[in-house]
Design a protein that fits this description.
The protein is built from ten helices and 18 strands. By secondary structure, the chain is an alpha/beta fold. The protein has a single domain, classed as Metal-dependent hydrolases (TIM Barrel, Alpha-Beta Barrel), CATH 3.20.20.140. Strand 14, helix 7 and strand 15 form a beta-alpha-beta unit. The protein starts with a strand and ends with a strand.
Length: 382
């Protein structure tokens, strides 16, 4: 067992001055408090004057799927040969020794939601995983699958316009999504009536996970009209929806609050390289929270390096997002949006000891992660 002693602890629910965290051999937090009783054989890690937070969670990225420092050999995020590919599984395309995972640990990031890109209107199944501790992806999984990637807007239009096939318009993109879900719904009804005596269909099985609300639809949308289309489709089929990117989400914050749709915002540190990004601003997280929309903040790594997740939060705080809301956006709120808040995302008894230790305010550009623990193991030490 390990004892982290000293430092200011931000549990995700409260702040403790000079607290202690006892970590069991199973990698979970056994006790947390001002003073924890331990036996003499416990390894003590003294971090006096440090800031201790839950490990950060990047709620949308492509770490391991677009390997850094490698070209086409490491680009495995878009199967851009068919617009509807719900049966693809991110776990089969992730390389756990991608340099991005090493960078994540250096930046205090202990978990990432990673998955397919946005070339297809339905791209495949994403997962959330720890950022270190094994060379085998299966041993790093927190939840798999954790979401179904979908996309509207410029990306699928561009990819399939070049191939001269549907979709080439927003109408076409939405129609393909509807068609896929109606087919999956019919497939599920036939299976139920015929008690399983229906030809197996891998695509429909993947879509059924969303229709049964076992996982959430994770929807790539920048423009407000695309966001509204996804909400419209969600309401038609009754599944759970998360908007990803949400560049114009602040323009319809009241609507998203009314519809109870969470948004994973970012990466806001970007040039206006396409029309969909003309409204990009770090004000988005603040405005959404002011309206009661639950948010997470992302890097979209490798678009922005995953170790700069805390910088995305710091700039959002500079634009008015309260500090504690910034922390939640990359810890407990991110975990809740990703469906893993029962096991990680805050420092609580019974949860995994996913911990980042800092030499100051983690959202101050001058601060650094001095230690990162995943499931109680020290995987990075400055």
């Amino acid at each position: 067992m390990k004892l982290i002693r000293g430092g200011k602890i931000f549990t995700g629910k409260k702040i403790m001055e000079k607290g202690e965290i006892l970590i069991g051999d199973d990698g979970k937090i056994k006790e947390i408090g001002k003073k924890v009783k331990v036996t003499k054989d416990v390894e003590v890690i003294d971090v006096k004057d440090a800031w201790i937070t839950p490990g950060l969670i990047d709620a949308h990225c492509h770490v391991g799927m677009w390997e850094e420092g490698i070209g086409i050999e490491g680009a495995d995020g878009n199967e851009s040969t068919s617009p509807v590919t719900p049966h693809l599984r991110a776990i089969d395309g992730i390389n756990p020794v991608d340099l991005g995972f090493r960078d994540a640990l250096k930046g205090g990031v202990t978990a990432v939601m990673t998955g397919p890109g946005s070339a297809n209107v339905i791209g495949g199944l994403s997962l959330i995983m720890w950022t270190g501790g094994s060379r085998i992806v299966d041993e790093l999984v927190i939840k798999n699958p954790a979401g179904l990637k979908m996309a509207l807007g410029e990306n699928p239009k561009r990819v399939y316009m070049e191939q001269k096939k549907m979709p080439t318009t927003r109408m076409g993109s939405a129609a393909l999504i509807r068609e896929a879900f109606y087919q999956a719904k019919e497939y599920m009804e036939k299976k139920k009536k015929k008690k399983g005596k229906v030809g197996f269909n891998l695509k429909n099985e993947a879509l059924a996970l969303v229709l049964q609300r076992k996982i959430k639809a994770r929807a790539h949308a920048h423009r407000a009209d695309d966001i509204a289309t996804f909400v419209r489709i969600r309401d038609e089929f009754g599944f759970d929806l998360v908007i990803e990117h949400g560049t114009e989400a602040h323009l319809i914050a009241d609507y998203l609050a009314k519809k109870k749709v969470p948004v994973v915002v970012g990466p806001s540190l970007s040039a206006r390289v396409k029309v969909e990004l003309k409204e990009i601003t770090f004000d988005t997280p603040r405005i959404l929270r002011e309206h009661g929309v639950e948010i997470a903040i992302m890097t979209d790594a490798p678009v922005i390096p995953v170790n700069y997740l805390r910088l995305m939060v710091g700039l959002s705080i500079k634009h008015g997002l309260p500090w504690d809301e910034g922390l939640k956006a990359v810890t407990i709120s991110a975990a809740r949006i990703c469906g893993v808040d029962k096991v990680t995302g805050s420092l609580e008894k019974g949860k995994y000891a996913d911990i980042a230790i800092w030499d100051g305010d983690p959202f101050d550009i001058h601060s650094n992660a001095i230690m990162t623990l995943v499931k109680g193991e020290v995987l990075y030490r400055a």
